[in-house]
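Quick one from the shared queue. A colleague (R.T.) flagged Cytochrome c domain-containing protein as missing a structural entry in our internal table.

Convert sequence to structure tokens.
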Amino acid sequence: MIESLHCHTVQKQRGNPLLILLILLTVICVHLGVMPTQAQDEASDEASNESSTETSTCTPEMLTQELESFQTDYPVEAEADADAALSNLFRLAMVYQKLAIDCGYTPTEEELGAMIDNTLALADAGTILAANAVGVDTEAIVAELETVTGDSFTGQLLYNGIEEALDGNALGCSGCHVSDTAPPTESTWTRVVEERLPLPQFDGYTDTHYLVESILHPNYYVVEGFAPNLMPTTYGQRMDIQQLADLVAYLMSQDQLPEEDE
């Protein structure tokens, strides 16, 4: 059992529409099997990086050049090949939308609704969310976390249900860890290092490995004195890698000395 995580499901809330749109933009081409070529993808990434880091590049002149470049990369003349034209038309819409967002455009509620409705007609919400979720492969996730910097403050917001998870709902970890239902939040990291990792079953584990496994597979190890099957086993489907990194960073910041039993 994780030293500091939630043990009950929180009522669903509506997700952030802009977050959903960004997820849709990255998932829909994969779902339909119409990803751009590597050269086109690299060119699009380069344009995105430039436009997002240098706002001066989002000028009328630059936008005109970008649009002309896109039309060259994604020709839509149907006379030669109607299927290729439709595929390129779809891709062209994608890069147009991404460029607009990178340059600071905020879609209207109507535009967001249309995008979401169109995508949900092609892929269910579970498929869309799963594309960004971390999954349950602990070893692979721990390796990926080495490339991600977690933010303990954001992790605290996730832990306390102030920041929403990938599915638009609160994790609500503190719901159980402020009572005797589960171990307390305070001193989480200290207990992991001093009490858990020395146990034989955790030989070779790091603190990160232990925390990730406890979050994703809470019944692999249940702390003595607490009941199994209380904590949800669905967090791998409810967080992306950045959210998990933030949550782990917050738990690792809990390095207080454990309180002495009276």
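The CA atoms of residues 188 and 227 lie 18 Å apart.
The radius of gyration is 23 Å.
Added to the table.
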